[in-house]
Amino acid sequence: MRSEVPRERLCFSSNLTMPPERRRRMKLDRRTGAKPKRKPGTRPGWKAGAGPGRPSQKPAPSSQRKPPARPSAAAAAIAVAAAEEERRLRQRNRLTLEEDKPAVERCLEELVFGDVENDEDALLRRLRGPRVQGHEDSGDSEVENEAKGNFPPQKKPVWVDEDDEDEEMVDMMNNRFRKDMMKNASESKLSKDNLKKRLKEEFQHAMGGVPAWAETTKRTTSSDDESEEDEDDLLQRTGNFISTSTSLPRGILKMKNCQPANAERPTVARISSVQFHPGAQIVMVAGLDNAVSLFQVDGKTNPKIQSIYLERFPIFKACFSANGEEVLATSTHSKVLYVYDMLAGKLIPVHQVRGLKEKIVRSFEVSSDGSFLLINGIAGYLHLLAMKTKELIGSMKINGRVAASTFSSDSKKVYASSGDGEVYVWDVNSRKCLNRFVDEGSLYGLSIATSRNGQYVACGSNCGVVNIYNQDSCLQETNPKPIKAIMNLVTGVTSLTFNPTTEILAIASEKMKEAVRLVHLPSCTVFSNFPVVKKKNISHVHTMDFSPRSGYFALGNEKGKALMYR
């Protein structure tokens, strides 16, 4: 009969038979409370309950496996209770810390972070700032979208730094375009906002108001049918749909240089006459090179149409007739008057005018209605000729020498400036003197011009002063007061020309370089941007003219160039 061995002895014997490494690992596992790890070579089907004599239990097939058990409601309740307990502990710790803080520190935190004593998450949301909500078709749930939209709005800043409000100043003196916008010397520096307002004012003044494309409130039609009706109404009518401004603004004149009118026929002789055709885009250029040239005006190349050469006939003055069918030309030392018929292409010389005893015919004027031709003679005589027959109608006599003459806008009166500073007004039909007045401050008259609207009379003297008179006062008074005396020239004024719209008066002196100015009417102020002093390409001006619609301005100088501006 086998004697029973005590259990303690069996355990002791088993410990003795264990390898020393396993005994050391078993002792560590008992101390830490961890289960012993399985050896790497252990088979996956081996279980703890299987002994060496028992067969290993195979795992159940996948079809017979049970799904893992979900956490029960009790486990969820335990997790919620644990989270609540943790939150309660954090709140108690925070209150303990708040009691130790002074009242000033708590007040400052409340001002900066707001009242968030009971909700730390609200403080975190406020520090993060508002989030931008995505599109409605995003995959977020309604609860998440509602949580994103419940963030409080941002507060205004508590203080404002005064340095942020300091505006940067712009220097107005170092820029020539900004310098022209200064109203007085105190505006040497302007802030950016004030400069923006000034530029806006200059633009609106130049445009004659706010243009339609710059208006903030645009008129919208209620339906597409109304817009189609407006388009149909626009296409059914013809005419000029481009409206012009009521008046030309003063100060700065927008203009640019064009190709010289006679670029295709250059010359070095002095240009004595430049004139635009009254009814076509043609400009005539004549000079001391014995030639009269016609050019087509396009502002780019100005191609030459024709040149008429007059042998041994240096041209003193050339002029179109009122209807533009003829060109009249006189010489510096001849009594012959040449007439060029543009339609027939014939050159007709007028050698002698019956009743005219002048040895040299130089200066002349053509009436605006095309009926008369006025020739300035010697010894104070003015000779009136019929334009069609070139026959003498009558003569008028003034005291002294005839310095300059011109017709009125209606061709019924003649204004003649004498060498003693007086101006005579004659009636064309009766050839009687209607009035004689003194040009204020003038000792010697050199030029005279009348506006096409019959409003102004301009008189230029040898001292560089141009007096602008009201035409009515010149007919009634002997000592009329000028509207304005233009004193921008210092030498004798030899050329005066009004533009067709009576908004610009061009004045020039042939005795000094760059001595040309454009005067704005009715303000009688000079445009500051013409001529450009730095370029100095105008030189001595001998003749000037405006195109019929004032789109171009041409002048001729002693270098043989007919400069043109748009």
UniProtKB/TrEMBL annotation:
Keywords of this entry: Nucleus, Phosphoprotein, Repeat, rRNA processing, WD repeat
Which SMART domains does the UniProt record give? WD40 (SM00320)
The stretches annotated as WD repeats are: 402-436
What SUPFAM superfamilies does its record include?
WD40 repeat-like
Superkingdom assignment:
Eukaryota
Q: Which GO terms describe its biological process?
A: rRNA processing
One annotated Gene Ontology cellular component of this protein:
small-subunit processome
* Compositionally biased region (Low complexity): 54-76
Subcellular location per UniProt equals:
Nucleus, Nucleolus
On subunit structure and binding partners, the annotation says: Part of the small subunit (SSU) processome, composed of more than 70 proteins and the RNA chaperone small nucleolar RNA (snoRNA) U3.
List compositional bias (Basic and acidic residues) regions by residue number.
1-10
| Phylogenetic placement of the source organism | Eukaryota, Metazoa, Chordata, Craniata, Vertebrata
Q: What does this protein do?
A: Part of the small subunit (SSU) processome, first precursor of the small eukaryotic ribosomal subunit. During the assembly of the SSU processome in the nucleolus, many ribosome biogenesis factors, an RNA chaperone and ribosomal proteins associate with the nascent pre-rRNA and work in concert to generate RNA folding, modifications, rearrangements and cleavage as well as targeted degradation of pre-ribosomal RNA by the RNA exosome. Involved in nucleolar processing of pre-18S ribosomal RNA.
Q: Where is region (Disordered) located? A: 1-76, 127-159, 214-233
Where is composition skewed (Basic residues) in this entry?
22-41
Family membership, please give it: Belongs to the WD repeat UTP18 family.
Query: From which residue to which does any coiled coil extend?
Result: none
Protein name from the UniProt record: U3 small nucleolar RNA-associated protein 18 homolog
Compositionally biased, Acidic residues: which spans? Answer: 223-233
